Each structure stands twice: as structure tokens, then as C-alpha cells.
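Annotated sample (chain length 480).
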Amino acid sequence: MKLTFWGAAQQVTGSMYLLELDDDYRILIDCGSDFESGDRKRNTKEASPFPNALFPFDASVINLVLLTHAHIDHSGNIPNLYRDGYEGQVLCTDPTYGLTAILLKDAAMLNQKRLNAINSADNQKKYRKGRKKKELPKDLYLEKQVKDALENFVPLAFNRRFKVADQCFVTFVPAGHLLGAAHILIEVWEKGQKKTIGFSGDIGRKGYPLLIDPGVLPPVDYLVCESTYGNRIHENNLSPEAALADVIKRTCVDIPGRLIIPSFSVGRTQALLYTLNKLYNEHNLPPIKVFADSPLAFESSRVYQRNIRMLNREAREFQEENESLFDFENLIYVEKTEVSRSISNHAEPCIIISSSGMIQGGRVEYHVAQNISNPYCTILLIGYCAEGTLGWRLMNGQTTLRIRDKDEQVLANIEKIDVFSGHGDRDDLVEFVQKQSPDHLKRVFLVHGETPSMEAFKETLESVGYKNIEIPQKGQTFEL
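Output written by the structure step:
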């Protein structure tokens, strides 16, 4: 069989791997949106045989899609796959189906806004004068494509071996990281020989709020492993409750301040709200207003609430005692845009949780713009920020920022904690790989990471006895 790396190759986003069996059965593992800038995409092993298409292969010849989890850099191009001719199923866990539906519908709504802007009267007039027709983005899908895709999702249970084709079986193993996230084990028999390949998906952390700990893949011949934090160790040793309580005390209690937390709506915000709920119920947190400024977060929280049985024991016990994981007296979900804008200047100390987590678009960008020069405001960064984003620039101490076409002086306090990062760090990744015997494992492929992170992680694995470690380029194919 052959494995081709069509995404998240020497970069973080766009996960997409094509596994081709000897009988021409083709499995696509993940089909994510690529958010890397154009100059980051030049490191490609092979030119696409379909240079004018979104996908570097004929979508109609794919037989099956396996989805590790809902995040858009893993799921975001699935509607386009159907638009371009795919007719098969998408296998994933039930929570992944629920969260993916929310994310894809939201993406389709944003795409409709992009389309409306492209087709606006002013734009059309401008392009007619230039005698050029505005080309639509290749990745622009709408509600119909999302509906077509979701009708073909088939939820599977964790740790149940499922036959997908003659001599081919698939098993989903809990990965932590996000509700429903999975490692994927594929077993194939070719010419009487069994071959096994494991895909890590995104590897979570032990003891993460709400989520069960990552499971263990059985012994495999080949391992595709993420390496997002392959060269980093999480810095905070405090519990999420202690770390968050400390920040709130200093920013909203000791001074009458405003705390803004940029946070991804799916996964990260649920961990934050659950932790705040625990602080209010168990640690006598003062009655400070908490604004969850994301309709997407509200919908995602409902999916978590429906899947209590798939959360960790602590969360299940908390639910039993308090009747809700997320709702508490001072929590206000914000839906309408005009209300969202008004809370940026809320008169009393408050906490605003809003997306996106990297402060790149979304409602939080407005909140940051309104408060970046406010010395009584603290902006708390709690996760990975890609280079070039506003979050990254704040993390790196930039003293002036251009936000919404205006230069702003950074007078707000900038803090960061990593206790809410959903990715395992270097030690977690090493532990995941070390569940595999270096004598049995034929090859390790490192994906989903910046090149320096991958190279450092490769050296770390080699130092503990692993060989044949590859860092594939985009488009590179390996015979397994």
C-alpha cells in the first residue's frame, strides 16, 4: 500500500493523508482546511496532477474518509470533497459528528458572506471596468455542500473494530484533545500479510478538564504522529482552577479590571466555562459577570452536555451534583452582534471569553481593539497562536498593533498560561510513541507541526532508540 501526505506536512494545518491499498481501495484520513500563508506552501515534493482543482487527486475515486476529530483544520474541506465528486461515507465518533456539523455550518455561513461581498454591486462594477471576472476561492462551499456531506457521516463507537472493506478494518481509540477525538488504527491484509498503521490525530493531555485521558494504540508497523509541541514543555504546573483563579483575582478583584480571554469556541471555551463553574461552586469566586461571546460556543456546549457519558469521571460527578457542566449564575451567553459590541465597555469588572483564540478575526478582535490601550484590561492568551496573528504579536511583546486599520498602543496587560492547551507537549508525545516497540515499528512519520518542532522531536525520538523517522514534504508518497 501507499501513503501520500497531502496536508499538515511540515506545517500545522490542513491535515489530509491518502492511503491507497493494493486493490485500489483509497482511504482519506482527515480532510482539513489549510490556513498557512502562500509562502509557507512552497515546500512541495510533487506538483499536483490537478493544478486548477482544490484537491491534488480525483475526489470521485476516494472510497472512504476517516475523520480524527472536528477541528476545522482536520474537517474543513469535507464539503468540497463532496462538491468535487466524492460519494462515500465519513466515519467518525458521534461527538465528532455533532461538533463537525456546528463548525461546517458556521464556515458555510461565513463563506456566504464572502460570496456576497464578491458579488456586491461595487465589486462587480470595479471588475467590469477592469474587464476581469473575479474568481471565486476554490475552497468556498455553502450550506448545500455541508448538508450533502453531513448526510453521509456514519458515527462509530470507540474501541470497536469495524470492517470497511475486504481485508481492511478500522478502530477509533480515544485521543483526548477534544470531545470525540480519536487515534485511528487501520489493519490491512495484503498478499496474506497483515500490515498495521496508526494515525495519532491530535494528542491530548492527561487530566485535561472534561476529557478522558488519551488512549493507547496497539502495536503498529507504521505510525503517523502529530508534533505540534514537539520541542516544547508546558510551563504551568498549577491546576486549571488554581491558574485561572490567580489571574481573576489579580485582574478583576484586586483592581476593578476587565479580563479578555481569546478562546476557540469548540473545546477550549468549554474547558474554560467548566473551570469557572467549579470556581464559583467550590472556591467562592466573587460574583463577576462572565460573558461567553460566541453562538458557536453555546451550540458546542450543548454537544458536550449531551455526551456526558464520554467525559471523564470528575466531570460526570460534577454534573450529577450541580445539574450542569457550564451554566452558573453570573454566566451570560451573548448571541447578537450589537450586544457583543456593548460588553467591550461593561462598567463593572467582568470576564469576556470570545473567539478566535489567535485573535485573528471573530468577535474577540473587536474586544481587543476596544481595550488594547486600557491599562485596567488584561488579555489572557491560553493557547497556540500561529506566527503573524494578533495573538502571536501580543505574545511576543509588540508594543503597538495595527487593528482594524488603526494603529493602537499596547497599554493593556498581556498574560499567558498554557494549562488550557489541548495539545500534549513534547513529553506527552514521546510517551505516546514509546507505547510502540522501536524494534517492531518500521517507520514513524511526523506531521502537524512547524519544521523546527518536527526536527527537534525527531532528534528526541532518535535519542531514545527510534529509527526510520520521516518528516514528509507535501505530496510525498511512501510505499508501506
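Annotation: The first strand starts at residue 2 and ends at 7.
Annotation: The radius of gyration is 23 Å.
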